[in-house]
Amino acid sequence: MKKQVDYDSRFQEEWYKMLRWAKNSGVQFLLLCFLVFMSGCGLNTHVVDTSATSSPVIISEPDHATIISVAATDDVAYLAESDRSLTARQANNGQVVWRQTGLAFLPKQYVWLVPTPKMLFDAYDSTPTTAFVEARQINTGRVLWRRAIPHELGPGFVAVMVDVNRVYVNTVFPLNQGLLYALDADNGQVRWQYAFQGQPMDTSVYSSNGVVAIRDRASNGSAHVIHGTDGSLLLSYTCPAGTNWRPAIDSSNVYVYCPGHFLQAYRISDGKLVWTAQNSSLQVNYWIENQGVLYSNTGDELQAFRAQDGTLLWKTTLPGGTLGPSVQNQLVGMMTASQVVMVFHAKDGTLAWKRPLNSSVLYTDIDADGFFLFGNDQAIDVWRSSDGRDILHTTTSSRIVWQPQVVNAHLYLWQFNGALEVVDLRIGNVLWQYVL
C-alpha cells in the first residue's frame, strides 16, 4: 500500500477507514494489518539495535523534496517526490540510477508505482477530473506510453494492478459509481471497461493469473470476477458481512466463499463449479491458495484442501477469532485474538512455533517476504518468520506509513514527514536514509 504525505482531510479519513476495515476483517490487500510493541517473550533472541550499526548513507535533496510514494524491486527503489520528480535509486546504497522530472500530479496527491521486470507503471491525478497512467522503461524511466483516464481517481487513492499484459485501473467517482479500466500493458490502449450497475464500486481490485475481481460497497454486497482478456463476467457472488470478499486464484480455478458457508472452486475456462469444500457448516473468514493447496480460516479451525478437487488434507483447531492465514516458505502464519502468533507446517498442520505479543495490537504484517513486522506509530520490530526470532528493533523520528515494504530482505520505512529509511534485515544495518 502506498500513501501520500501531507494528506488532505478527505484522504486521511478514507485511508484510516481502509486500515480499520483491514484490521477488523483480517483482510490483506496486499496485508493482514494489526501492530504491536514487542519485548522479550521467553525466547533465545537476538535484537539488533540499529543505533549500534555502521553509519548509513545520508541523502538530502537541496529543495527539501519529500517522498510521497515508494515501490521497490530486488535491486532498485523507486521514489516519487513532492517536487514532481521520479527517481530510481540502488537498493543497497541509495545511489541514483535515473531521475525523471516534470510529472504532472496535483499537490498533496500520491503516485501509484508498480514496477515489473521491463516497465515501471505509475498513476496519478493530474487535474481534479483527469488522471494519467504511464508506462516507463524500467532501466531509464523514459515514458513509453501515457493514457489519460478522464475522471477523478477517487477519494485520494486508486487501486492499480498489473497482471498478464493488463494494467487495471479502478476509478471511483459519483457520476457512474466507478469504472474498472483494463489497459494493454504494451501500448496503453483501453481494452475494455467494466462498471457495476446501481451500486457504488469499492476502491479495491485484485488480479492474478489473468483474472480480475472487484466488489461493490454494500455491506452485504456482491463481488464480480472478470476475464482479463476481454472483460467478460466469469462469475459473481454475494459477500457475507464480516468476511473477506477477495477470491483466491490459481492458473485453473477461482476459489470463493459463498452464502450458506460454502467454500467453492470455479473453473476459469468456463465458470463451472468444480467442487464444494467439506465441513461447510463453518464460517470461512479468509482463504488463500499456495502451491496447489487452499488454506482456509474458519475462526476456529485452520483447514488445508487440495485445490484440484477439494479433498481435505488436514485441519487443526485454533483459538476463536484467529486472523490469517499467510504462507511463507512452507509455513502457515496466523494471529489469534489473544495476540499470539501461531505458525504451522504447511505439509501437515503441526505447530512449528508460537509466540505471544506483550502489548495491544494496532498493525501487523505477517506476509512480508520471510519476516513478520510489528510496530507502532514510531517504532517497528521484525521477527524471522521461520522461527519467530527477533531480527530488528528501531524507532523513527516521525510516524511510520503502514504498511512498510520488505523486498529482497530490504525494509523500506517510509515516514509521514516524507523521510525514508532502508534497512538490510540480513545484517540489521541501516543502509541509507532519505532525510529532510
Describe this entry's structure for a reader.
- By secondary structure, the protein is mostly beta strands.
- The chain has a single domain, classed as YVTN repeat-like/Quinoprotein amine dehydrogenase (Methylamine Dehydrogenase, Chain H, 7 Propeller).
- The protein is 4% helix and 46% strand.
- The protein is built from one helix and 37 strands.
- It has one helix at residues 9-25; strands spanning 57-59, 67-72, 76-81, 85-90, 96-100, 112-115, 119-127, 130-137, 143-149, 159-163, 166-171, 179-184, 190-194, 206-208, 211-215, 222-227, 233-238, 248-249, 253-258, 262-267, 273-276, 286-290, 293-297, 301-306, 312-317, 323-328, 331-335, 340-345, 351-356, 363-365, 371-376, 379-384, 390-395, 405-407, 410-414, 420-424, 429-434.
- The strands form nine sheets. The protein has a five-stranded mixed β-sheet, with no helix packed on it. Strands 2-3-4-5 form a four-stranded antiparallel β-sheet, with no helix packed on it.
- Strand 30 and strand 31 (371-376) form a beta hairpin.
- It is globular, with a radius of gyration of 21 Å.
- Residues 1-52 and 152-157 have low confidence and may be disordered.
List the helices and strands and how they pair.
Elements: H1 9-25, E1 57-59, E2 67-72, E3 76-81, E4 85-90, E5 96-100, E6 112-115, E7 119-127, E8 130-137, E9 143-149, E10 159-163, E11 166-171, E12 179-184, E13 190-194, E14 206-208, E15 211-215, E16 222-227, E17 233-238, E18 248-249, E19 253-258, E20 262-267, E21 273-276, E22 286-290, E23 293-297, E24 301-306, E25 312-317, E26 323-328, E27 331-335, E28 340-345, E29 351-356, E30 363-365, E31 371-376, E32 379-384, E33 390-395, E34 405-407, E35 410-414, E36 420-424, E37 429-434
Parallel strand pairs: 1-37
Antiparallel strand pairs: 2-3, 3-4, 4-5, 6-7, 7-8, 8-9, 10-11, 11-12, 12-13, 14-15, 15-16, 16-17, 18-19, 19-20, 20-21, 22-23, 23-24, 24-25, 26-27, 27-28, 28-29, 30-31, 31-32, 32-33, 34-35, 35-36, 36-37
